[in-house]
Write a structure and sequence with these properties.
The structure is a single chain. By secondary structure, the protein is an alpha/beta fold. Helix content is about 30%, strand content about 20%. A seven-stranded mixed sheet has the order 1-7-6-5-4-2-3, sandwiched between helices. Helix 1 packs across helix 6. Bound molecules: pyridoxal-5'-phosphate.
Length: about 180
């Protein structure tokens, strides 16, 4: 309906951030999924511009990732993002409502830098849902995963969804039911 490749319902946008970032760490690798939140054996750094710090960015760390802030309150340069990317980088993170903040690198440019290096960009667009066409626009700008909260479109609390790349949505599906209930231990 919003013109994206794939999507999956999540229990809210906070959970979407935790699950979606988790998927960026593990892909569909079952050993990595079972290891979470222990991320010692996988890339676990998520890059955020200092000017994009906001209260929900803590959800990035719930699955075991570590936030790495680049730049300062005056802004961030594209070179600083490139320099921060290394073998432990798992994702780039952009809160959509802060895109275009003074001195920050735009979502389209962040996503392009990520794609140069094969790193996915995650966007929190929790309340960016009107007009409805806007919901697909973040993927169109290069975002690989985008989350929305149903609390902003008449749905119940603890509801929302993730949209984006088919392989990452498949990884979210693999991670969001880890079958602990079926274990005899
Ligand atoms: C409300 C909100 C969230 C969390 O959404 P829930 O669905 O309540 O988990 C995340 N990001 C932003 C920008 C929000 O406003």
């Amino acid at each position: 309906l919003i013109g994206v490749d794939a999507a999956r319902v999540t229990p809210g946008a906070s959970a979407a951030i935790a699950l979606g970032i988790g998927a960026c760490l593990t892909g569909c690798d079952q050993q990595r999924i079972e290891a979470l939140p222990n991320t010692a054996d996988m890339p676990n750094e998520v890059i955020l511009q200092r000017g994009h710090h906001y209260k929900y960015d803590r959800c990035v760390e719930l699955a075991g990732a570590r936030l790495v802030e680049v730049g300062d309150t005056e802004g961030t340069r594209p070179e600083e993002i490139r320099a921060a990317i290394g073998p432990r980088t798992a994702a780039l993170f952009v809160p959509a409502h802060l895109d275009g903040q003074n001195g920050t690198v735009s979502l389209a440019d962040v996503a392009a830098i990520g794609h140069e290096q094969g790193i996915p960009t995650f966007v929190d667009a929790a309340y960016m849902n009107y007009p409805v066409e806007i919901m697909g626009s973040f993927n169109a700008q290069g975002a690989d995963l985008v989350c929305f909260s149903a609390k902003y479109f008449g749905g119940p609390n603890a509801a929302g969804f993730l949209s984006g790349r088919r392989d990452l949505i498949a990884a979210v599906a693999a991670i969001d039911f880890t079958r602990h209930a079926g274990d005899s231990a």
